[in-house]
Amino acid sequence: MENYDESIMVNCPYNKEHKMLRKKLQQHILKCRELYKDTVELKVCPFNKIHLIPEPEFFQHVKICEDRKIIVQYQTSAAAVLDQDTRHAKIECEENWDDVNEPDYDPQAYCSNANIVREPNGMFPSERKAFIKEENRRRFGDDYEDEEKPKKNKSKDPRRENRSTPYNLNANNRK
Question: Region Disordered: what ranges (predicted)?
Fold first, then answer.
């Protein structure tokens, strides 16, 4: 750490032997605060949270803190005054953007009337099926008929009923 400029190096407020880069101070303070919480009592400066000062020196620090200048300057500065140069005449316009007679925009209503493909996201299977059916009617007209898919025959194959399985010995093997 010898090669660093002294202006960017700072000492830890809890232990003066700890020397580090200014940008690492906050991170280091968190560690040292936990280590020295029972032995060292420091107060936090109201103008800069990195400034940790022993109580006897606290009031003197508050009076001369370099960050105090920023706060005091902000509190005592006068409000901005509009001069004649910065003022301008009111701009009159025939448009009225505050028309309250218009209904609010509803994206679902717009999509249901426009030629937009909608997806049935986040629906249960029965809702999805009804949504797709309604979408097809909307897009292709009221006379659109769903193509009927051939229903699966759930009855068993008659050839399989007579066969015995090796695990199920039925009446054929008991004869």
Answer: 134-175
Q: Do residues 126 and 68 share a domain?
A: no
User: In which domain, by residue range, is 58 found?
Assistant: 6-76
Q: Please give the model's pTM, rounded to 2 decimal places.
A: 0.39
- 119 CA to centre of own chain: 25
Query: What does the pLDDT profile of the chain (175 residues) look like in tens digits?
Result: 556 676 788 888 888 899 999 889 889 988 888 888 888 888 989 888 888 888 889 999 988 888 888 888 888 887 777 777 777 788 888 887 776 777 788 888 888 788 888 888 888 999 999 998 888 888 887 777 766 555 665 555 555 555 555 665 555 555 4
Indicate the number of domains in the chain: 2
- Boundary-marking domain end, from 26, 53, 76: 76
With CA atoms as reference, report the closest residue to 41 among 53, 49, 32: 53
